[in-house]
Amino acid sequence: MRTAYSVETVRAAERKLMAELPEGALMQRAAAGLAAACAGLLGRTSGTRIVLLVGSGDNGGDALYAGARLARRGAAVTAVLLAPDRAHPGGTEALRAAGGRTVDGPSAADPARVMAGARLVLDGIVGIGGRGGLRPDARIWAQAAREAGARVVAVDLPSGVEAGTGEVAGEAVHADATVTFGTYKPGLLVDPAAGRAGALRLVDIGLAPHLPEQPDLEALQHADVAALLPVPAAESDKYRRGVVGVVAGSARYPGAAVLAVAGAFGGGAGAVRYVGPAADAVIARFPETLVHAGPPHKAGRVQAWVVGPGLGDGPDARRALDDVLDSDVPVLVDADGLRLLDGDRVGARRAATLLTPHAGEAAALLGASREDVEARRLDSVRRLAGEFRASVLLKGSTTLVADGTGGPVRVNPTGTGWLATAGSGDVLSGLTGSLLAAGLGVVDAGSAAAYLHGLAARFAAGHGGAPVRASQVARALPAAWRSVRG
Ligand SMILES: NC(=O)C1=CN([C@@H]2O[C@H](COP(=O)(O)OP(=O)(O)OC[C@H]3O[C@@H](n4cnc5c(N)ncnc54)[C@H](OP(=O)(O)O)[C@@H]3O)[C@@H](O)[C@H]2O)[C@@H](O)CC1
Ligand SMILES: Nc1ncnc2c1ncn2[C@@H]1O[C@H](COP(=O)(O)OP(=O)(O)O)[C@@H](O)[C@H]1O
Ligand SMILES: [K+]
Known about the structure:
Homotetramer. It comes from Streptomyces meridianus. The chain is of the alpha/beta class. The chain has 2 domains: about 1-220, Rossmann fold (3-Layer(aba) Sandwich); about 220-485, 3-Layer(aba) Sandwich (UDP-N-acetylmuramoyl-L-alanine:D-glutamate ligase), CATH 3.40.1190. Helices cover about 40% and strands about 15% of the residues. It contains 21 helices and 18 strands. It has helices at about 5-20, 25-40, 60-70, 90-95, 110-115, 135-145, 185-190, 220-230, 240, 255-265, 280-285, 315-325, 335-340, 345, 360-365, 370-375, 375-390, 425-435, 440-460, 470-475, 475-485, and strands spanning about 1-5, 50-55, 75-80, 100-105, 120-125, 150-155, 175-180, 200-205, 215-220, 245, 270-275, 290, 305, 330-335, 355, 390-395, 400, 410. It has an 11-stranded mixed β-sheet, with helices on both faces. Strands 4-3-2-5-6-7-8 form a 7-stranded parallel β-sheet, with helices on both faces. Helix 15 (about 360-365) packs across helix 17. The radius of gyration is 25 Å and the shape is elongated. Potassium ion binds next to strand 5 and strand 6.
């Protein structure tokens, strides 16, 4: 499991750790890890040109001390001091003593010349102390670094992103890799900021014992998902494995029912019940499905419901939604179900409810704009969960799952843009419902499903990548299971 902590929590832990250590020891740990990561990336340091972009805080200090270490290994290191009178004094001195040189950033005539021939640029402009996007001076240098074609390694965070939220308020550095210290920060895992971070590397500086048990964010990895996935035992039968009910599709959108059922079969429930007008289409594709034409509560035993994909917004759809919400088993509400949703009804439920909006649906539920939700994903998912007193899975480039009780938000690391194809959300809702029926908690079910879904899309897209259809994502789910469990 990857975990991330808010900036305040990181600062508090750092204070405790620093009190145990000699002055400056922590920065040396960070710089040593950073220099080692850079050396590993370069392969060869001797004779290599490296440029450091150095801001006025300790983030710049890290870059300077790491630069000094690389200079001692034979690299030709130039530090661009963006605030020359406030650059970390010890770091500046160490770099000069190691043979590195410094350039006055704001008054340098030609950034392109300083960058010429650089293979690596270290972004030490600003770290967790940053506020807002890059300032104009820094922007010029960040752009020069990209234009020079150098690899850009961000120190702790890509400068310009909001460490605690993943928001990007203005311009930010685009890094090829980020070397972060002590713990991940939310901005490294949540888009749009995460998209600027490149490959992540965590350097252990001894912070872990001082961090609280509960992180702000969690990202599952293969082993975590493997531990969650329901596997039949010797005594299993279809009811013990769970029965998932799917209320989806309409005369206009029968395909949504087929895709949700496909996802449900990919999730490990013992049986899938389908309730709605698209039974013929469902049976034609999946003869194993138990179909029912009456109201959901008459369909027979169900351990979790999925309601909404392709349901339409007529009176039948509304009745089916309310019927399912009246049940005392977990309910996942997606797509049209979200448009018809009565918040009070959700708040009154005793069993778990999981809402699975994409950014547009989340925006409608919050009375915000889609752009706003996409810019503030973490805040949006928490607000939705709070307002609806339900768990929420916010879909998109970094899918987030919040439980509404202030627990850690799960962030999915397997997403891929190939998933942005019609119907892939229907597959996800069936898959998640299946895991709910098998007995997983809502946050576990939502995050494990998002993980498998992303992995399946990657497998379907194949090596190198090619467009995939939602049904191909569903078909690749067994491969995703095997990859996780293997
Ligand atoms: N604490 C520890 O134990 C350890 C900390 N470590 C390291 O320290 C980093 C935190 O250092 P920090 O607290 O000095 O803040 P930092 O991120 O350098 O930025 C603050 C400066 O930036 C400026 N500034 C603000 N916004 C800006 C913007 N948009 N664009 C440009 N400039 C901007 C602001 O100046 P001002 O607003 O006054 O002009 C202020 O002076 C952390 O990320 C990690 O790398 C590691 O060594 C491990 C141990
Ligand atoms: N840029 C992206 N990167 C990763 N995943 C994405 C991206 N865009 C969409 N997705 C995923 O694709 C699925 C789309 O679901 P949804 O928007 O409900 O589509 P539909 O209603 O057509 O099924 C979601 O799982 C979402 O997380
Ligand atoms: K940085």
